[in-house]
Design goal:
- β5 and β6 (about 135-140) form a beta hairpin.
- The strands form 2 sheets. Strands 1, 2, 3, 4, 5 and 6 form a 6-stranded mixed sheet that branches.
- The protein is elongated and about 100 Å long.
- It contains 12 helices and 8 strands.
- The protein is an alpha/beta fold.
- α4 runs antiparallel to α5 (about 165-205).
- It folds into 2 domains: about 5-160, Beta Polymerase, domain 2 (2-Layer Sandwich); about 225-340, no CATH class.
Length: about 350
């Protein structure tokens, strides 16, 4: 049977429930808007209001701590689960701008471990949304920290049985591995971002031979629109409109042609772009085609390179299979392309 104090707090809870529901909506919207504005992608943003049954259980255990409902800080709980540990700190800084933080009751459990211990890591802020009297709890943790918390809850105190030392040691070892994994994912992301910045700088400075050809570096090269002038020349043949399409799918074709650096790609472009234009003029001259793909320049450069290197119809077929997937239409396309180019002087017989 509940005591009078518990009944009074539960009555406060029933009356205040609509306020918590409004807070929940506003907090979630505010968090989502802020993350979107700052370009931070997270695993989940969630919130819950403690049920009356759950609150009654809490009061049965710790009711003497709370004079009124306002003293209970986790009636509303919000949680953001991130991919990376450094995003936890970024979002924490944003939360400090959005909410009034009750520093005395907030806790960073990441800083509580001893040198030889591992375990539950999470940042808990007790917050107040401007315009409201009640506080709420905001938890920030990574996906791996969340997985650990869920597993620890299931294998640890949820069962109400003390875990034997042998199993606790194994659990702690796993906790240490998760901590290492969390740190490594963040470090790898930082190093990849640094690598991308270095690549962009090398591309901007024209040091293309120093940049290995891969997906990231090819995107940086494409950002400079290296095929735009050729495409405009080709479009002018029929006064056609250029429709933009992704060119990243040509990466494998360029590697097949022997390109290992951006310098190789650029040399391929400058060496064969005039032939590529001649081929386009031969392809389009007797047509009324008024829309062309932005891939036409690069594709024709690849076609010329394949034929110059003696790849013939089979080389063209391999290219179209790489671009379009294996299908019977590619054989007809390779045949047509080869026939269109057969009268031009740059074709080398295999």
């Amino acid at each position: 049977m509940m005591d009078l104090h518990t009944e009074m707090i539960l009555e406060e809870y029933r009356e205040a429930r609509p306020v918590f529901e409004k807070m929940q909506t506003e907090v979630l919207q505010l968090l989502r808007d802020t993350l979107n504005k700052n370009g931070i992608i997270v695993t989940a943003i969630e919130a819950r209001i403690k049920t009356e049954e759950s609150l009654a259980g809490k009061l049965a255990l710790k009711g003497a701590k709370y004079a009124t409902l306002s003293d209970i800080t986790d009636i509303l709980g919000a949680r953001i689960i991130t991919f990376y540990t450094d995003d936890v700190d970024r979002i924490a800084a944003m939360a400090e701008q959005l909410f009034e933080i009750d520093w005395a009751n907030s806790v960073d459990k990441r800083r509580l471990h001893q040198l030889d211990s591992f375990g539950y890591n999470s940042l808990h802020y007790i917050c107040r949304l401007p315009g409201y009297d009640f506080r709420f709890e905001l938890q920030l943790r990574t996906t791996l920290q969340h997985a650990w918390a869920s597993i620890n809850h299931d294998t640890g105190y949820k069962s109400g049985v003390e875990i034997p030392r042998e199993y606790m040691r194994r659990i702690n070892r796993l906790a240490g591995l998760l901590e290492i994994a969390d740190d490594e994912f963040s470090h790898i992301r930082t190093e990849i971002n640094d690598y991308r910045r270095r690549v962009q700088q090398l591309v901007q400075n024209g040091k293309l031979d120093d940049v290995l050809l891969d997906g990231d570096t090819f995107r940086s090269y494409l950002d400079a629109k290296p095929f735009a002038i050729l495409n405009k020349r080709i479009a002018a043949i029929n006064q056609a409109e250029i429709q933009e399409v992704p060119l990243i799918r040509y990466l494998g074709v360029l590697k097949e042609l022997g390109c290992t650096t951006l310098g190789d790609v650029n040399r391929l472009r400058t060496r064969y772009e005039e032939d590529a234009y001649t081929l386009a003029r031969h392809q389009l001259g007797n047509t009324d085609l008024d829309i062309i793909s932005s891939a036409v320049g690069l594709q024709n450069i690849c076609i010329v390179a394949i034929l110059r290197q003696g790849g013939g119809k089979m080389g063209l077929l391999r290219m179209f299979n790489a671009l379009n997937g294996h299908n019977t239409d590619n054989e007809a396309l390779a045949e047509l392309t080869y026939n269109q180019a057969s009268a031009l002087s740059f074709i080398t017989q295999p």
